[in-house]
Design brief:
The complex is a heterodimer of chains A (about 130) and B (about 350). Chain A has about 130 residues and is α+β, with helices and mostly antiparallel strands. Chain A has 4 helices and 9 strands. Chain B is an alpha+beta fold. The chains are: A alpha+beta (about 130), B alpha+beta (about 350).
């Protein structure tokens, strides 16, 4: 059973964003990490790069496949999770603790286009 | 077209395997995860359902002459039980398939071919056989096959399956009476580890699988780790490193091509050797951990100079490496090249395509 956390916003492409004030922490869901299998590389943008909701900002690579990361929100990258460079498997062990990028949100209202925990739960149980 | 299923298909489903199409079959890719299964084979013992592989029996007075006519390696005067790796080539030198030839006995050879090529190979072999006194039989449906691979494989096959195999040298086989039928066991594999491949009826194959599962000492392994294992030790996969348009010389498999005998494709290969290769498959190691995958472009001097044939973040070494077909000018060891992965270009250098040392018992 995939873990879903209340209070986060979810995208159909299985990224989440946790909003704290003017910042959003973006990562992949537990369902996504499980589907991918052993994560061996996370291709992340640079600090100060712009990300746009609905567009890719990097990729998560498992042994067998590369999967694009689609940003659920727009804004500027203010931090990337450097720990994932040496330990990409952290995405498997706790995907919600191990976010991938921290974004300064351009428009906090964008989260209205995303799913809440219940809606995401319904999506992955389809 | 509906995919075929091996005689162990129901067992894979019951084990909860991830099933995907491969070579016209619905095959198990992984049971738990690729990394654990890969490590089980490197460190202890894993088993694979390889019943999808094709088997073609060639018999008759001219069988040795015929097999040597279609095979790049030389099987002349081979002792019974000897196995050879090599290719069948088109007249162009491109590869029809890579295969193992088992010399079962005088005038009896078993050709073990790739699942994806069974129909093509059988048609091609049958066509070439027209002017030879041989009988070609496709026995692919008759045989199931289990590969038992890893450093403890010998002990496990002896103790759990009760099949004496410690007498088998590397790349030899024998027929054994087992459960009222004649089965074939060979000291071969596709993992770079010691191990055995066991061919028998569907019923026998199920019995082998069940006994090994019941022992709890052998990990069921899917085709996912079969690919990472063969890749790390530089073994080619038809469709990646070998195709109808790639010659064995370009693939770096010249040691399995005997140009001092006659076979189909020899003229083209001799000419290619004389003229010099224009491209070749080499290893490439990247400095970063991004993964170069099949089909990605390789660049140097601001231009595309080749393409990745297979690549992974090597499970045994942790390095991101690939085999790649490169313009010959860029194939010297340590040449700096880069692989385009998504929007970025990741630098690396040319290296040996054996990324991990084989651990055969010879």
């Amino acid at each position: 059973m995939s873990k879903i956390i209340e209070g986060l916003f979810y995208a159909e492409s299985h990224e989440y964003v946790r909003v704290e004030g003017e910042y959003g922490y973006v990562g992949i869901t537990d369902y996504a990490q499980h589907e991918l299998g052993n994560v061996v590389y996370v291709d992340m943008p640079e600090v100060d790069d712009e990300v746009t909701a609905g567009e890719d900002f990097g990729a998560v690579e498992s042994v067998k496949a590369a999967s694009d990361l689609i940003s659920p929100v727009s804004g500027v990258v203010v931090e990337v999770n450097e720990a994932l460079n040496d330990n990409p498997e952290l995405v498997n062990s706790d995907p919600y603790e191990n976010w991938i990028i921290k974004v300064q949100l351009a428009d906090a209202a964008e989260t209205a286009n995303l799913m809440d925990a219940d809606a995401y739960k319904a999506l992955i149980n389809e | 077209m509906e995919n075929k299923r091996t005689c162990l298909y129901d067992k894979h489903v019951a084990l909860g395997a991830l099933i995907s199409p491969f070579g016209g079959f619905d095959m198990p890719i992984q049971y738990t995860n690729i990394v654990d299964e890969h490590n089980a084979v490197r460190r202890a013992c894993g088993m694979f359902d390889v019943s999808h592989m094709g088997e073609v029996l060639v018999t008759g007075a001219e069988s040795e002459k015929f097999v040597n006519h279609i095979f790049t390696n030389d099987i002349a005067a081979a002792p019974d039980g000897k196995i050879y790796y090599g290719m069948m080539c088109h007249h162009s030198g491109g590869v029809v398939d890579d295969l193992l030839v088992y010399k079962m006995a005088e005038e009896r050879y078993l050709l073990v071919i790739n699942a994806s090529n069974i129909d093509k190979d059988v048609a091609w072999i049958t066509e070439q056989a027209k002017n030879f006194d041989v009988v070609v039989e496709n026995q692919s449906e008759k045989y199931g096959e289990v590969a038992v691979q890893g450093p403890t494989a010998e002990e496990i096959v002896e103790r759990i399956l009760g099949i004496h195999c410690s007498d088998l040298a590397f790349y030899t086989c024998k027929e054994v009476e087992c459960n009222g039928e004649t089965i074939i066991i060979s000291r071969t594999g596709y993992t770079g580890e010691d191990g055995f491949e066991i061919y028998g009826s569907h019923e026998f194959t199920n019995m082998v699988w069940d006994k090994l599962m019941a022992s709890d000492e052998v990990k069921p392994c899917g085709l996912g780790c079969r690919d990472t294992l063969r890749f790390e030790v530089g073994l080619p996969l038809y469709g990646d490193e070998l195709t109808d348009d790639i010659t064995p010389l370009e693939a770096g498999l010249g040691m399995f091509v005997k140009l001092d005998k006659d076979f189909i494709g020899k003229e083209a290969l001799v000419k290619q050797k004389t003229d010099g290769l224009k491209r070749k498959i080499v290893g490439v190691e990247l400095h970063d951990k991004a993964i170069p995958r099949h089909g990605y472009e390789v660049e140097a001097d601001g231009k595309v100079i080749g393409v990745v044939t297979t690549g992974y973040n090597s499970i045994s070494t942790g390095k991101s490496v690939c085999m790649a077909m490169l313009d010959i000018d860029y194939t010297k060891m340590d040449t700096e090249v880069a692989v385009r992965i998504r929007k970025k270009v990741f630098p690396g250098f040319v290296t040996k395509k054996r990324f991990y040392d084989k651990n055969y018992k010879k």
